[in-house]
Design brief:
The protein is an alpha/beta fold and 234 residues long. The protein contains eight helices and eight strands, in the order ααββααβααββαββαβ. Belongs to the ComF/GntX family.
């Protein structure tokens, strides 16, 4: 209910653009265009964590894109889930891990937020974006569904501000698959809003493999700026 009221308020009460800070539109067309610009790319955190599946990102984590992601996640500007979900859909398709048709469909498994973070924010931003992406994929003929298969099994601290090695240590062994959420051998795409060190996605992949499922790729809205300035591999 709290999320529903916040979404209605964001639609009817004018606010400055979440991306550039100008205007009174919530998000301006120019910033949405920036999010849509270019093609999704494979990104490589440096150093790349062991076990990280191929990661594809729709846009660089900078400027208007960074502003929109933070506004959606931390300020609850919920209508941003639509353009952010469309960007995530592009990253999923670019990965080549899903395709139209097929009997079993395709599972998008979001990296979970802690319960305290969800309570503080009033919503689960990654799951919300993933739901939008799955809807867009289904509209394009891909039988995609969001499967919130992962859960935290021990406390972790906030990853923000931690260096790469500390992020990996903070998350090591922290995730597990909920009983019955995934079938043995099931192919899944891990999804998140942004990748920085890759520690969260690597831990999610470890948990999925330990359950017997197959994390064939990962997709995010935004990744390191270096991927868009010629420093990526592949």
């Amino acid at each position: 209910m709290r999320g529903w009221w916040r979404e209605i308020a964001a639609l009817v009460l004018p606010t400055e653009c979440a991306g550039c800070g100008r205007g009174r539109e919530g998000v301006c067309e120019g910033c949405v265009t920036e999010l849509r610009a270019g093609r999704a790319r494979r990104v490589f955190p440096v150093p790349t964590p062991a076990g990280l599946p191929p990661v594809w990102a729709a846009a660089p984590y900078a400027d208007a894109v960074r502003g929109m992601l933070l506004a959606h996640k931390e300020r609850g500007v919920l209508p941003l889930a639509r353009p952010l979900g469309a960007a995530l859909e592009r990253a999923v398709l670019a990965s080549g891990a899903v395709r139209p048709g097929g009997d079993a469909g395709w599972a998008l498994v979001p990296v979970p937020s802690s319960r305290s973070a969800v309570v503080r924010r009033g919503h689960d931003p990654t799951r919300r974006i993933a739901s939008r992406a799955a809807g867009a994929l289904r509209a394009g003929g891909v039988r995609a569904r969001v499967v919130p298969a992962l859960r935290l099994v021990r406390p972790v601290v906030d990853q923000a501000g931690l260096p790469g090695r500390a992020r990996a240590e903070n998350l090591a062994g922290a995730l597990a698959v909920r009983p019955g959420a995934l079938a043995a051998g099931e192919r899944v795409v891990l999804v998140d809003d942004v990748v920085t060190s890759g520690a969260s996605l690597a831990e999610a992949a470890r948990a999925v493999r330990a359950h017997g499922a197959l994390p064939v790729a990962a997709a995010v809205v935004a990744g390191p700026l270096s991927a868009w300035v010629g420093r990526t591999r592949g």
